[in-house]
Sequence to fold (115 residues):
Amino acid sequence: MPSARVVAVMLDGTKHEAVGSFMALSDRVQFERRYNLSVLEMARQSDLLSPDGRPRANVTDLREERMAYFAWKTLVRGDPAVGDFEVFVDTVDELTIERLVGPVDPTAEVPPPGM
Fold:
């Protein structure tokens, strides 16, 4: 299962950070139910973006909200957990997702570096 470090800086300056599973099976199923969109289709659309972020094909259905959803799902499992998704989206100022390589040791003080 992929893991990531997710950091959300809120409009009031508070910061939430969690390291853990990213896009776990339960998260993907809940995403598909919420958005009525296959995660595989979302991944296919994401693959149509070039490394510089410009689309190589029609990506009009690709929405930033969807990645925010997976980041929020990771932060919900953190301590302290963030609240409701809609409140989270309305109050987040900056969101970063760093994919991590290898297994995550939850007891480590400093999470392993990303790719």
